[in-house]
Amino acid sequence: MLRSRTLLLVAALMPLTACTYKPSFINEYKIDVQQGNVLTQDMVAQLKPGQTREQVRFILGSPLIADIFHRDRWDYVYRFREGRSGKVASRQFSVFFDANDRLVRVAGDVEGAGFEELTAPASKTRVLDLGSVSAEAVEQTPLPPPEAPGFFRRMLNRIGL
């Protein structure tokens, strides 16, 4: 009786252990996750003191955080997590306005990476030089003969289509 209960318990727990074990050669695919506003150095360079909120919004886009308790501050936050390695790159940029809704100062990661640098996948290709062909060789190369029509094209031609 004790042996049958033990076998029943082992049989019941076997599926649970199967779910917890993952062989090391199995790697799930993880996507790159990009969140927030991408700000380039060119965009930040266009900001000038005295610009209105609308001008700043036109240059940088809508802020990610427009806090109701700090009406004179807009925060642009960016976070990029690479799926394969799990590395996280984050940037924070704040824009401050005065009482007349004019740009006073900026703070944060002004020299952030560009959009292409943060989202471009690492290049894993190589360029091989197979030699160049001269223009004379291209002109002298005969064109291949035209292909004969296939079975279906011949049948359609016989029908008149």
Report on this structure.
With 161 residues, the protein is α+β, with helices and mostly antiparallel strands. The protein has a domain at 29-119: 2-Layer Sandwich (Beta-lactamase Inhibitory Protein, Chain:B, domain 1), CATH 3.30.1450. It is built from six helices and four strands. It has helices spanning 2-20, 41-45, 53-60, 115-119, 135-140, 151-159, and strands spanning 33-36, 73-81, 88-97, 103-108. A four-stranded antiparallel sheet has the order 1-2-3-4, with no helix packed on it. A hairpin with a 5-residue loop joins strand 3 (88-97) and strand 4 (103-108). The N and C termini lie far apart (81 Å). The model has no long low-confidence stretch (mean pLDDT 79).
Distance between the termini: 81 Å
Strand order of the largest sheet: 1-2-3-4
Helix vs. strand class:
alpha+beta
The number of strands is: 4
* Helix-residue proportion: 25-40%
Gyration radius, rounded: 32 Å
Runs with pLDDT <50, length 5+?
Answer: none
Please tag this protein with its features.
161 residues; alpha+beta; four-stranded antiparallel beta sheet; 6 helices; 18% strand
How is this structure best summarized?
The protein has 161 residues and is of the alpha+beta class. It has six helices and four strands; from the N terminus they run αβααβββααα.
Q: What secondary-structure arrangement, pairings included, does this model have?
A:
Elements: H1 2-20, E1 33-36, H2 41-45, H3 53-60, E2 73-81, E3 88-97, E4 103-108, H4 115-119, H5 135-140, H6 151-159
Antiparallel strand pairs: 1-2, 2-3, 3-4
